[in-house]
Amino acid sequence: MYKSYYPKAAEIKPEWVVIDAAGQTLGRVTTQIAALLLGKHKPTFTPGVPMGDYVVVLNAAHITVTGDRLNTKMYHRHSGYPGGLKSISLRDQLESRPDRVIRAAVWGMIPHNKMGRQIIKRLKIYSGAEHPHSAQVAEK
Predict the structure, then answer these.
(1) Closest CA to 17 of 111, 100, 98, 124
(2) How far apart are CA 48 and CA 38, in angstroms?
């Protein structure tokens, strides 16, 4: 008889992964980030269990996009009040808050439930090359 393997909380050991996004395409790097956050790179991957690693993204301001997306792609948010819709283009968003661009792309690739909200907290994005997580990140 075969028994299904279900990982226990004590068996899950998240690691810290550093990704340099400088010069990389937005969609390609965010699919890698989403797979690392979900834990799909591990042989013990189980859907519905947050098995992923912590991901530190550096140089988010230097990410590239293809085509005319810098001008045509828009990000929208609403305050909840009448007339409260605010829109910003990808170009302006990359200049002012580049971390929001990557976070929005990764959020679209992970589950939109309680586990997804838990997973997205493991994503740390910085627009420059410095980060405060040098104690957690193991040198390879």
Answers:
(1) 124
(2) 9
Cα 93–98–129 angle (5° rounding)?
Answer: 155
DSSP, collapsed to helix, strand or coil, labels residue 74 as strand
Q: Where are the alpha helices (DSSP H) in 2-127?
A: 26-38, 69-72, 90-96, 98-107, 114-120
Residue indicated by tokens 């400088």: 22
Please choose, from the candidates 59, 37, 42, 40, the residue with its C-alpha nearest in 3D space to the C-alpha of residue 106.
37
* Residue pair 106/123 in contact by the 8 Å Cβ criterion: yes
Nearest to 132 by CA among 16, 52, 12, 29: 16
Q: Which CATH superfamily is domain 16-125 in?
A: Ribosomal protein L13 (3.90.1180.10)
- Please tell me the distance from the alpha carbon of residue 94 to that of residue 127, in angstroms, as a whole number: 9
For the stretch 35-82, pLDDT in tens is 999 999 999 898 889 999 999 999 999 999 999 999 999 999 999 999
- Cα(60)–Cα(129) distance, rounded to whole angstroms? 9
Q: Is 69 helix (H, G, I), strand (E, B) or coil?
A: helix
Quickly list DSSP for 112-124: SSHHHHHHHTTEE
Q: Is the pTM of this model over 0.70?
A: yes
